[in-house]
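Shipment paperwork, digital attachment
Item: protein structure file
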Amino acid sequence: MDIVANSEPRIISLKVTNQNIIAQLADGRSVSVPLVWSWRLSEATPAQRNHFEIMGSGQGVHWPDLDEDLSAAGMLSGIPAPKTSRVLKTLEVSAKRASATA
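Attachment content:
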């Protein structure tokens, strides 16, 4: 009898604190990444942070209110979510307006 083990990391539970995103994986590991690695989550309210859905069989997590997705593999690889060029442009315009009115 052959048994094939699933080598893909799968999230079975998730907790979001004011500082970290903590995932419990199916293989018994826990992985924690800083909340600031997801700019959308770090700028969200606690209620928005806690409204998430584990996707598929645990490959990732989706926050419908924030249009944010994090994968188990991404959390393990340690790569923060980049801000999109549109978001960066909006931040630049906001900063220019703020300095112009100061």
